[in-house]
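User: My instructor asked us to take a sequence, write out its structure as tokens, and then describe one feature of it. I'm not sure where to start. Here is the sequence I was given:
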Amino acid sequence: MRRRTFLTLTPSILAQTQALQTANPNIVFILADDVGWGDAGCYGAKSIHTPNIDRLASRGVRFTDAHSTSATCTPSRYAIMTGEYPWRRKDTAILPGDARLIIQPGRTTLPSMLQKAGYATGCVGKWHLGLGSGNLDWNTQIRPGPNEAGFDYSFIIPATADRVPCVYVENGRVAGLDPKDPIRVSYSEPAGNEPTGRARPDLLKVHPSHGHDMTIVNGISRIGYMAGGKSARWVDEDMADTITRKAQTFIDSHRTKPFFLYFGTNDIHVPRVPHPRFRGTSGAGTRGDVMQELDWSVGQILETLDRHNLAENTVVIFTSDNGPVVDDGYQDGAVQTLGDHKPAGPYRGGKYSNFEGGTRVPFIVRWPRHITPGVSNALFSQVDLLASFASLTHQKLDPAAAPDSFDMLPVLTGKSKTGRDYAVEHARVLSIRRGPWKLISKDTGPAVNRNTNTEMGAGLTPQLYNLDSDPGERTNIAAQNPEKVEELTQLLARVSAAAKTRP
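Assistant: Let's start with the prediction itself. The structure tokens for your sequence are:
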């Protein structure tokens, strides 16, 4: 009898074990800000130390040819959330701090798709996709926002740290707001009597290099005007600690069921004001210091997963919203202390640029239960995350959803080295990649961004590069390869004219 009972129970035990092994994994998506291809140790950085990002890479797949869709933040984040190329819409440029939500409530998004699969979804950190539907009142419930775009919980930096209002918004309400001190925000005229960096530079602890000279908060002048909300204002030096703790708390609270955490770090965006424990710790000045602060945040997330024994069945992705920039509006010494460090690695350009440095970003995927560590040279675009995670969670997307997102799950997990056939890159104009070839569309704008000193990749005629032989895009070979120029021009025209590209 005992033997028969044992044999009867065994299939049940095996079934339960198999169910656990095939259960939807947790997903932690860490989206850094303005981190370049060459900013982490595992991508070649020497003067900046990133042991936690490097540890993530050592146990996962490190991509060498992964791209954000755009060379700036709002559009690339829009693509991740919606699976749609952002240049298809006119309202996906870098948004001011009081912009309306640019994701239409009700459309399929990365978090809403995962909600349908039973995931608890959380958004912590930088948002920068707009809030509300116009005439935003920061003193009441703010809708729509992340919670209407598919997140069960949100604790966000509304736009960027260099833009007002300098407050956190938790589940649609400004965190810590005193109703007796209401917030007023304007991007056209002063909102009150708060001092500005333009009028009172003597009050500043970080001075602007261009723009960024409006309302002063925490000794730093910002873009835009703000009055009130003094009890709710953030302290820049504490921002990494604050949002990292919120991310850890989300994991703590949802560890017993599948969860999706979207963690948008502030680092290494300007103003770069590291916590004192990171100040002076790198060999690349303040920019290097905040990169090491970012690495600490990554380490805290990994330690939280380890503490709950979740690491084996959690997909962790680390990447950046666009390429690097050194001087982006503040005199923080980043240019003078850069030394031999190359934020974009061997690639030309950076944030805002048509060159590869604008969109080729670090991209690491770890999932110990299913991924064999290694390096992938596959061409990959962040726009593919929505369709890939739908495949991971066994969901079929509506034909109208995620119009430009391809299922690249085998590539993400390292099972396939065959990436995209082509990828569109978006900066001031559109570029297209196919294999080693890259075509940059005609761009009659300035060759160099005078504020950031970034090479923009402008040209009076289309430019063609072979990235296998010329990764730095130094030699335009369009004249020698008219057939390739025509092929890529026609492909880009077809993609641009189509309403969707997803099969």
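For the description part of your assignment, you could build on this observation: The two ends are 57 Å apart (CA to CA). Try explaining in your own words what that tells you about the chain.
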